[in-house]
Amino acid sequence: MTRRQRDVVVVTGASSGIGRATARRFARQGAQLVICARSDAALQTVAKECRDLGGQVLVVPADVSDESAMVGLADAAVAAFGRIDVWVGNAGVFAYGTFEQLPSDVFRQVIETNLMGQIHGARAVLPHFRRQGAGSLVLVGSLYSRASSPTISPYVTSKYATLGFAESLRQELRGSGIRVHLVLPASIDTPIYQHAANFTGRLVRPLPPVSSAGRVARAIARAPGRRRFVTFVGRTQKAALLVHDFAPGLHGSAARWLMKHVELHGRAPSASTGNVFESTGSAGQVSGGWRAIGLRLLLAAAGAAVLLRRLSR
Ligand SMILES: NC(=O)c1ccc[n+]([C@@H]2O[C@H](COP(=O)([O-])OP(=O)(O)OC[C@H]3O[C@@H](n4cnc5c(N)ncnc54)[C@H](OP(=O)(O)O)[C@@H]3O)[C@@H](O)[C@H]2O)c1
């Protein structure tokens, strides 16, 4: 067994999507896993999956926005397995609506989960990493850590701030043996869009093309062995960063158009706070079923482009 195979790995937001794919990936490597989310029932399903794949698993239901719960999570991991090698800060929630549509408590809770959850996690695990003289903190941000979009301002705010926090912490920890890594996924096929709060009056879907959660899990699992600070997942959308940095006006117009005409569609029956305040409680899936839809949207866009060219001749 190699050193990585015996690693003790904590994964927050492990009951669904990227976190669930990450837990499974580490389980296949024989890791000693500590999995966290708010729903115990959903975590038990993931724990069984991971044990079947060869991992040892401790389930700790906890809310990442509760600082003392994160200290409890780190302490439980050390009590069970003696140390922590990798902490994956992954739990996150999404909320759609303009700044004026979104209730203030929804805005605040997105920040509490996506940003303060990462900060509480870092504060809880660092004393253990210091004692060990080593450890890897892998934080999941987003392409929205580097470029914005309208109608998701709390999410963008939380993800930009996560990048700032990670950069600053990394600078402080240089030479300590503790590494900080940031994984920035673009659109990923997970149930986060079904789980999202939505005050727009319209249905939501991810901006295509969407990548699989497995690709993000691979980037997360590889991060501790690498010197690289930032890893992007989703090459096509990463290219949009060039537009954001060098033609911000054009990026702003494109982001607005895409949100209005692609990401939002149809009519939503009613406003919803989704899983922002409470877990849906069900065992989530890794996939949100968006890849086929993304492909159909791309094909439709290509077809429309061909038709427009023909008509303009
Ligand atoms: N999917 C994408 O397109 C995409 C793109 C870029 C970045 N990301 C980031 O990737 C991460 C994972 O997202 P995902 O797409 O896998 O979403 P997901 O399928 O909705 O899973 C979210 C996970 O976080 C947990 N969670 C939510 N709030 C929590 C809280 N307060 N305390 C503890 N656990 C909590 C959920 O379980 P409970 O509800 O049971 O707690 C669930 O396990 C997030 O940080 C997200 O921002 C996603």
Any overview of this molecule?
The structure is a single chain. This protein is of the alpha/beta class and 313 residues long. It has a single domain, classed as 3-Layer(aba) Sandwich (Rossmann fold), CATH 3.40.50. The protein has eleven helices and 13 strands. The strands form four sheets. A seven-stranded parallel β-sheet has the order 3-2-1-4-6-7-12, sandwiched between helices. Helix 2 links the parallel strand 2 and strand 3. Helix 1 packs parallel to helix 2. It is globular, with a radius of gyration of 20 Å. The N terminus is likely disordered. Bound molecules: NADP nicotinamide-adenine-dinucleotide phosphate.
Task: Name the descriptors.
about 325 residues; alpha/beta; Rossmann fold; 7-stranded parallel sheet; two-stranded parallel ribbon; globular; disordered N terminus; binds NADP nicotinamide-adenine-dinucleotide phosphate
Question: Element order, helices and strands?
Answer: EHEHEHEEHEHEEHEEEHEHHHEH
Mean pLDDT: 93
The strands making up the biggest β-sheet line up spatially as 3-2-1-4-6-7-12
Largest sheet: 7 strands, parallel
CATH architecture tag: 3-Layer(aba) Sandwich
The 3D shape can be described as globular
Ligands in the model, by name, code or SMILES, are:
NADP nicotinamide-adenine-dinucleotide phosphate
Query: What percentage of amino acids are in beta strands?
Result: 15-25%
Distance between the termini: 65 Å
- The oligomeric state is single chain
Query: According to CATH, what is the class?
Result: Alpha Beta
Rg over alpha carbons: 20 Å
At CATH level 3, the topology is Rossmann fold
Q: How many DSSP E strands? A: 13
List segments where confidence is low: pLDDT < 50 over at least 5 consecutive residues. Answer: 1-5
CATH homologous superfamily placement: NAD(P)-binding Rossmann-like Domain
Tally of individual domains = 1
Structural class: alpha/beta
